[in-house]
Design brief:
homodimer, 152 residues, alpha+beta, Aminopeptidase, 35% helix, 35% strand, globular
Chain lengths: 152, 152
């Protein structure tokens, strides 16, 4: 396997990142989906990178963006003041699946979360993504919660 | 119903907040649970209040803390750069349930999230909390996702 590295996203990654995020039937079916780097995307990117509690991670192989996820570190009073990490927008390039890139991406995320003092990592995954649920279960995640969402 | 108001938590609310968070069998069963305002709780509180993307909300009635929740605002590239709000640690004092305090608390949270430009609000709720799931469904939340967690 060619060497796979993980780093923070840069503004120049945005076109590749949007392509990755759109490389998914469920995501494409959602309102507001776009591959265009418009002002709302630019603003969101700037907010993510300016916020010390957010990290947008890029997996790179042979100079190409092949995977991504976003981490948010959240302080909380519960469980004795436990800090948690939330994972959002996990993607691996569809033609590269089955090569354990996703596993390496998630292991990297768990290391980052531990280094930030998190005692828990959590995510929600669309109930239609059965393969994703098996993948996360293999990594030690337990589907103990209902993930509930509401448009505003 | 005596008037119910919502505001940001203050350090002097911490003992009441921890009591509220502990007023729950599922929470009590979790590792690290404590009612004592120790240094980890103090640090978590300071981090929450210092972070412009976190709000710790307190519901007050007759000068007493009767409800709480935490909001985290998360910028993201998905769905056209949609900002989302995450809700954690929702509690209503157990002897005051059935008085629509929880509903007012969540309506207040949704208003705050909208005012912050969020297009989506989300939460995870323990699968054993059937009443909570019905409550959130009445407020328009859809259990479309699995909520998966892993200790670190």
């Amino acid at each position: 396997m060619p060497s796979l590295t993980f780093r923070h996203a840069k503004a120049t990654d945005l076109p590749s990142l949007l392509k990755l995020l759109a490389d998914d039937a469920i995501a494409q079916s959602r309102t507001g989906y776009t591959e265009e780097v418009g002002p709302a995307i630019q603003t969101a990117f700037e907010e993510i990178t300016a916020d010390p509690n957010n990290e947008l991670i890029v997996g790179e192989q042979d100079g190409q963006v092949v995977a991504t996820l976003q981490l948010t570190y959240i302080p909380g009073l519960g469980r004795g003041g436990l800090r948690r990490a939330l994972v959002e927008a996990v993607r691996v390039r569809s033609d590269l699946r089955g090569q354990r890139i996703g596993e390496a991406l998630m292991v990297d995320a768990m290391e980052r979360a531990r280094a930030r003092g998190c005692g828990l990592i959590q995510l929600t995954t669309d109930k239609r993504r059965h393969e994703a649920q098996r993948f996360y279960a293999r990594l030690g995640f337990v589907a103990s919660h209902e993930g509930m969402k509401r448009p505003l």
